[in-house]
Amino acid sequence: MEIKYLYIKSNYNLDGTPVEAYIEMDIKNYAVRYLDLLKDGEVRYATENEESGTFLPYEKFPEIKDIMGEKEIKEVKEITKGEFEEVWRKLVENERS
Predict the structure, then answer these.
(1) What is the mean pLDDT of the chain?
(2) What secondary structure, in 3-state letters, does the chain show?
(3) Which residue has the higher pLDDT, 44 or 97?
(4) Phi-psi category of 59—alpha, beta or left, where left has phi over 0 and alpha has psi -120 to 50?
(5) CB 46, CB 54: distance < 8 Å
């Protein structure tokens, strides 16, 4: 097992609900960095040491096939570390500065 990176797109259409999420998971499928993009453009993120509008989920993440079974989920895919880091730098680093 290794560190995994996920991208999740949802069908949520309410303000204040995430429409996209980027997750870095450890080898046991626990989130170590988590980024939400809301419909209104707000960015929320969390790490093991920092929270900004959201928090790390306490439970293990389910497998991709199980996430896709949820009715509000439009897309789930594994992404590369480089793809995750690019989004993290662009959105989180901008939020911090």
Answers:
(1) 89
(2) CCCEEEEEEECCCCCCCEEEEEEEECCCCCEEEEEEEECCCCEEEEECCCEEECCCCCCCCCCHHHHHCCCCEEEEEECCHHHHHHHHHHHHHHHHC
(3) 44
(4) beta
(5) yes
